[in-house]
Amino acid sequence: MFNIFSNSKSVDISTEEFKQKLEQEAGVVIDVRTKDEYNAGHLKITNSQHDFLNGEFQNQIENLDKDETYYLYCRSGNRSGQAARIMQKEGFENVYNVGGFDDLADAGFEANYGNDE
């Protein structure tokens, strides 16, 4: 059976691990949800939004600095997990799937909702 995790370290970290890592090493926070999802609510610390479903995220990878640390989130952690593994395969070493937006907001990460910039 093929294991997609076989040649790579896990990209998935808990909300608590995310908080700790942010304190130690600020990074680039990317929301990989759709523009509509992002506009409905997103973390205040989000640096950019690149839609994973329409291919925008995949097109943006080549513009990203492989030496940076990246934290990705989506609605549930599924798309951000896929996106993080793609980045890892492209040679990014410090990339993490931090899960879903609602879980992060519930854990105390400040969020903007609607036109609440």
What is the residue-mean pLDDT, rounded to a whole number? Answer: 91
Coarse shape? globular
CATH superfamily: Rhodanese-like domain
Question: Which runs of at least 5 residues are low in confidence (pLDDT < 50)?
Answer: 1-7
Number of domains: 1
Largest sheet: 4 strands, parallel
Rounded to the nearest angstrom, the radius of gyration is 14 Å
Share of helix, binned: 25-40%
The CATH level-2 architecture is identified as 3-Layer(aba) Sandwich
Output the CATH class name: Alpha Beta
The ordered H/E elements are: HEHEEHEHEHE
Total count of strands? 6
Structural class: alpha/beta
The total of helices stands at 5
Widest β-sheet, arrangement of strands: 3-1-4-5
